[in-house]
Amino acid sequence: MSFYECEAEDLKRFYFAERGDYETTPHFHGAVEFHFVEEGEQEIIVDGQRRILRRGDGCFCDGFSVHQLPPLKEGKAFCLVFSAEFFAPSFSFFGGKKPPTFFRFENFTLLHELYERCSRKYANNEARYATFGGAVQLILSEIAESTPFVSYKTERKNSLVCSILRYAERHLNQDLSLTAIAKEFGYSHEHLSRILHKYLPETWASYVNRLRARRTEALLSNDPDLPVLSAALACGFDSPNTFYRAYKKEFGKPPRRRSK
Predict the structure, then answer these.
(1) Do domains 6-146 and 159-251 have the same CATH topology?
(2) β-bridge partners, 98
């Protein structure tokens, strides 16, 4: 629903898939994400860096990197999204260092083998998680063979950002001004403003209004008889003008008229 992928924060989160021609909007999460291009060309944008990836090019998105992938046409790529829990032990082998944002990776035989193993149906979660953890270590070791790992600035604010974004999604009908958020989490307005600016592609107020616009549209789609303004107020909008501006900005048109 939002640009923040809550499901990627779940413990034991593991997503391994072959990418086709679908695209993603700008999004972010605390999980670790990899992309490997086997065929064709893939444009990718990570924290404002725009690159064209071709065969043998890989991309690493560390926790809370804002990233976006336009459609991959006439090509093949792999996408892996892992809970940070899987990576913590593996990164320790490299002294806490991680792959650079862009790197080379050409062992697609390994990727196909791991993809097949990770796609199996396992009788118990222990075997499944052991396979995933092993896959993570093999992928990292293969990258490390040809690419020096680098040190990233330690950002202990990730967990705070995660908590704030979760709170916002669960309390859209409440006061979500930065002042209210600062009071809720016990930080100053200025401190939270600086932190959120690093992770959000827009202002906090704009982000919240877009979440509310999306939630309003979801309500209206599920209940066509619900009056538009009733849905908007239920999602936290405090005035019709604010709602209509946010809705049009998000969907490019005013909300459809529905029966009362």
Answers:
(1) no
(2) 150
The per-residue pLDDT of the chain, averaged, comes to 89
Instruction: Please provide the size of the chain in residues.
Output: 260
Per-residue model confidence (pLDDT) at position 200:
87
pLDDT at 87 over 90: no
Residue 127: other Cβ atoms inside 10 A: 11
Buried b vs exposed e over 27-56: b needs ≥16 C-beta within 10 Å? bbbbbbbbbbbbebebebebeeeeeebebe
Query: Is the model's pLDDT at 166 over the cut of 50?
Result: yes
Average pLDDT over residues 64-85: 85
Q: pTM for this one?
A: 0.80
Residues 227-239, mean pLDDT to the nearest whole number? 95
Beta strands in the chain (DSSP E): 14-19, 24-27, 32-39, 42-46, 49-53, 57-61, 67-69, 76-82, 102-104
User: Selecting from 1.20.1440.20, 1.10.10.10, 3.20.20.140, 1.10.10.60, what CATH number does the domain 159-251 have?
Assistant: 1.10.10.60
Positive or negative, the CA dihedral 179, 183, 185, 186 is: positive
Domain ranges of the chain: 6-146, 159-251
Q: Taking residues 170-187, what's their average pLDDT?
A: 96
6-146 topology per CATH: Jelly Rolls (2.60.120)
The closest of 188, 197, 232 to 214, measured between CA atoms, is 232
